[in-house]
Design goal:
This protein has helices spanning about 15, 25-35, 45-140, 145-290, 295-310. By secondary structure, the chain is an all-alpha fold. It has one domain (about 10-255). The longest helix has about 150 residues, at about 145-290. It starts with 13 loop residues before the first helix and ends in an 11-residue tail after the last helix. The mean pLDDT is about 80.
Length: about 325
């Protein structure tokens, strides 16, 4: 594959592409293109390497840019849901409080009535004590007027003290009821605020976790792309070096073969020259021996030439 197809990602494709394994098809295209190994020793090859690298970069941008836009739309889409949930929980809390209000008011009223009944009981008890005291006082008034007067004064003090004590207890009870109601309201408000804080913290944690997941996926994708790019570059470099080494070995083997052939030819030529010189020396010796036997030199030369060329049957020269 010499060129990458132009990559165009439409918005409706984003959910399927920007998910686990969704971009594998594009990666396969890029990996397939990266298998090409231009000749780095030529300008055309080096220009081709630059063109391939730019094609990979353009493909990365064409995929990453709409991906970033898709993530941005996802984050924007979360905001209305978050606001809607916040409104929903707030309204539910208000509805719950409105539902509980009659019961809370009734319980408070019952506590007030109980406190009032207690106060009335205390008043009745005080009155009964006064009536009993009056009876005892009437029985003794005739015998000791001075003691009666003193007892009457004490009775008045006791009755006043009892009334004051009953009033103090009533007020204290009402204050305690008010304090308890205020404390309950404070606890309810704190609990509602705590629930709001926890819900907000939970939503924030979920959004943060989603953002962190997206960031991790982006980093992993980037690191994976960089790692694959590095591996492709290293693979291309290894292939290039192997090709260079193979070409060097071929040249070396070719040169060795040429040198071996030249040596063989030279050796054969030297061997032929040596054999020729050897034959010439022997032929001269044979001619000299024939001349020494009284044969004319020209005749001796013709005889040796005929024998050397195998023209005389059964007669050879031992070289």
């Amino acid at each position: 594959m010499s060129e990458l197809a132009i990559i165009e990602i439409k918005p409706e494709q984003a959910p399927a592409l920007y998910s686990a394994g969704g971009l594998n098809g594009f990666l396969e295209q890029i990996r397939e293109m990266a298998k090409e190994v231009p000749d780095v020793t030529t300008k055309k090859g080096r220009d081709r390497i630059g063109s391939l690298a730019r094609a990979v970069g353009s493909s990365k941008t064409a995929i990453e840019k709409p991906g970033r836009e898709y993530l941005k739309r996802l984050k924007e889409a979360v905001k209305p849901a978050e606001e809607e949930l916040r409104m929903f929980t707030r309204e539910c809390d208000a509805i719950r409080d409105a539902i509980l209000k009659p019961r809370d008011e009734w319980e408070a009223e019952q506590e007030r009535i109980a406190a009032e009944n207690q106060m009335n009981a205390w008043h009745e008890e005080a009155l009964e004590m006064n009536v009993d005291h009056d009876r005892r006082f009437a029985a003794r008034i005739e015998s000791d007027h001075e003691i009666a007067l003193m007892m009457n004064e004490k009775h008045d003090r006791d009755r006043e003290e009892a009334r004051a004590e009953a009033e103090r207890k009533r007020i204290a009870h009402e204050e305690e009821l008010k304090r308890q109601a205020a404390e309950q309201a404070r606890r309810d408000a704190e609990a509602a605020a705590q629930r709001d804080r926890e819900e907000a913290a939970r939503r924030e944690a979920e959004l943060k976790a989603a953002a962190e997941r997206a960031e991790r996926e982006r980093i992993e994708t980037q690191q994976r792309a960089e790692r694959e790019k590095k591996e492709a570059a290293e693979r291309a470099e290894r292939d290039k070096q192997e090709a260079i080494a193979a070409e060097r070995r071929r040249q070396e083997e070719s040169e060795a073969a040429r040198q071996a052939e030249a040596k063989r030819i030279a050796d054969e030529e030297a061997k032929r020259s040596a054999d020729k010189e050897h034959r010439r020396t022997i032929n001269r010796k044979v001619i000299a021996d024939l001349v020494a036997q009284g044969i004319e030199e020209s005749v001796a030369k013709d005889v040796v030439c005929a024998v050397a060329t195998n023209k005389i049957e059964f007669l050879t020269i031992n070289y």
